């Protein structure tokens, strides 16, 4: 298992948490997805055999949340 952290632009609404966590959690290979609202970070634990950190980043950005780091 691998853990990746993504820094997002500041999150403005709690519903953003459910949207991001829900989408990432449904992806094959993702074991856990956690949004840290106050720090605007996403932490994901996943199997690199099934999904890559880049794919997770692209998914977050497609939801409308730019990843800045």
From TrEMBL:
Q: Name one GO molecular function term.
A: metal ion binding
Q: Name one Pfam family in it.
A: HMA
Does the keyword field hold Metal-binding? Answer: yes
Name of the protein this chain belongs to:
Heavy metal-binding protein
Which residues does the UniProt record annotate as the domain HMA?
A: 2-68
| Source species | Virgibacillus indicus
Query: Which keywords has UniProt assigned to this entry?
Result: Metal-binding
């Amino acid at each position: 298992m691998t853990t990746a952290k993504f820094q997002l632009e500041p999150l403005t609404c709690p519903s953003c948490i459910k949207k991001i966590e829900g989408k990432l959690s449904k992806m094959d290979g993702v074991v856990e997805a956690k949004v840290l609202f106050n720090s605007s970070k996403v932490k994901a634990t996943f199997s690199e055999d099934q999904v890559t950190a880049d794919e997770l980043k692209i998914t977050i950005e497609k939801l409308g949340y730019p990843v800045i780091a």
